[in-house]
């Protein structure tokens, strides 16, 4: 469990700098330069991600169960992942009205992913992993929306064709992940 916690601290910690220490972040970018800052940020994030994946895998070998969800919850999570993946797809399409309306669809997708997986997985490691991501995404989303409002960003030009593309990409990712990748990667069939 210690590797999971250390990984979460590193991964979510780096992703929280803009939330809790934006001034320090700006100083470091000015001091190091943008590319070295991004490189350091990516390196620490990658180390954190590797540690949290390793730690989560180790914790799953000897789980401490807090609750057991009924089987139908697995199907609910599978269905909730469809809009999460559509949001994730929209986050990379600048002309998407979904992206414009939500503001930060990747963080919103993370919130949906974490919340859905939290209700379906009742081990202590699941609570630590998904609960941490849920709390982080709620704080990060609110902070990002507040920054956007303060910056008075212009309303982007959007087109429904870009939303259609986001839906197609998200649905394709969902189909591949739900029916082909989830079990080989995580040992659990997401759709039963």
Walkthrough of the structure:
By secondary structure, the protein is an all-alpha fold. It is built from 9 helices and no strands. It has helices spanning 2-14, 17-20, 22-32, 34-61, 71-90, 97-102, 105-120, 124-151, 160-186. The longest helix has 28 residues, at 34-61. The two termini are 28 Å apart.
Summary of the model, kept short:
The protein contains 9 helices and no strands.
Topology overview:
Elements: H1 2-14, H2 17-20, H3 22-32, H4 34-61, H5 71-90, H6 97-102, H7 105-120, H8 124-151, H9 160-186
Q: Give start-end ranges of low-pLDDT stretches.
A: none
User: Nearest-angstrom radius of gyration?
Assistant: 18 Å
N- to C-terminal distance:
28 Å
**Count of beta strands:** 0
Sum up the overall morphology in one term. Answer: globular
Biggest sheet details: none
The amount of helix comes to over 70%
Tags for this model:
9 helices; single chain; mainly alpha; 2 domains; 0% strand; 192 residues
